[in-house]
Amino acid sequence: MRTIKLFLIFFVLLPSIWGQCSRLVFNPTTQKLDCFPVQFTATSTGIVPSSGGGTSNFLRADGAWSPAAALTGSIGYWGSFYDTSDQFSAGSTAANLITVNSSDPESNGIAIVDGSKLTFTNAGVYNIQFSAQFVKTDSGNDDVDIWIKKNGTNIPYTNSFATLIGNNGKLIAAWNFLVSVNSNDYVQFYWHSSDVNSSLKHIDAQTNPTRPDSPSIILTAQMVTYVQGAGSALEVGTAIASSATIAPTKPVTHVTGVTAISTIAVPSAFSGSSLGGLLTLVPDGLWSTNTSGNISISTTAVVGKALTMFYDSGTAKWYPSY
């Protein structure tokens, strides 16, 4: 009778036990059935499978452990710049170049070069905005034109004009452009007025109430898109010969020759406070680097093996990948 009762109990409990165990094995030591739990899979509930340890793997919906997918997206290149000087019209036939003497030190990947060139380290489409404060100090009404050039050439259909009205007339001109650039392209702003008494005017801080200075010009730029697909596209520059100092102008550059390299010229967009950047050198010759310039360690190039150089503006050094 006891055997029948035990069999009935086991028969009744078996479905629920079996749903939680992949198999039951009698343990002669404990005189009990050992349950080997069902593991979680894409089609069944159960315990979490062993991860093997570590901190880099994540449990997927199919019950497998795997590394997290790499994050993708725009880097967020931006720049903010302004000028604290007065800039005057040079006359009826002059294209007046707008200059900029100040920048936000946190600007990333965009810099002002040579006082006027809004320069981009990375290829992409950028939203470029400006705010210009014009004044005139004579009678009558005078038109003001504003347009932009890329790499020294007028960009078609970017000119716009506004009118300064009467003596002491004031005007804020502000609009934006979407501009596609390659690495190290630059954009400049120009303006024109036939009236030499027209100017871009900086206004000092005011009181009662306290108000900050008004720059004569404000420029900002933000990346809108960058090249996407199987991977981000990088522009490849013309091959250069190794020498004591080299000056790559593109994100990827082939380097020929056997001369040791001591110094790599720093792109202007890398040199701001708290900034850095990457260059990739593709060795086409058996050159090397040394530490007599701005490279942190000595290394020997391997033909056909790309060498990545990271620049840290804080230390003013390049750090090779091998």
> Strand portion, in percent?
35-45%
Query: How many distinct domains?
Result: 3
Major sheet size, sense and barrel closure: 7 strands, antiparallel
Average pLDDT for all residues: 83
Alpha-beta classification: mainly beta
Distance between the termini: 79 Å
From N to C, what is the helix and strand string?
HEEEEEEEEEEEEEEEEEEEEEEEEEEE
CATH topology of the largest domain: Jelly Rolls
Q: How much helicity do the residues have?
A: under 10%
Shape: elongated
The name of the CATH architecture of the largest domain is Sandwich
Would you report the number of β strands? 27
Summarize the structure in short:
By secondary structure, the protein is mainly β. Helix content is 6%, strand content 42%. The chain has one helix at 2-20; strands at residues 21-27, 32-37, 57-59, 65-67, 78-83, 87-88, 96-97, 102-103, 110-113, 117-120, 124-136, 141-150, 153-154, 160-165, 170-181, 186-192, 198-200, 217-225, 240-241, 245-246, 252-256, 263-264, 276-283, 288-289, 299-300, 307-312, 317-320.
Q: What does this protein look like?
A:
This protein has one helix at residues 2-20, and strands at 21-27, 32-37, 57-59, 65-67, 78-83, 87-88, 96-97, 102-103, 110-113, 117-120, 124-136, 141-150, 153-154, 160-165, 170-181, 186-192, 198-200, 217-225, 240-241, 245-246, 252-256, 263-264, 276-283, 288-289, 299-300, 307-312, 317-320. The strands form 7 sheets. Strands 5, 6, 8, 11, 15, 17 and 18 form a 7-stranded antiparallel sheet that branches. Strands 7, 9, 10, 12, 13, 14 and 16 form a 7-stranded antiparallel sheet that branches. It has a 5-stranded mixed sheet with strand order 19-21-23-26-27, with no helix packed on it. It folds into 3 domains: 2-67, no CATH class; 78-225, Jelly Rolls (Sandwich), CATH 2.60.120; 240-320, no CATH class. It is 6% helix and 42% strand. The protein has 1 helix and 27 strands. With 322 residues, it is mainly beta.
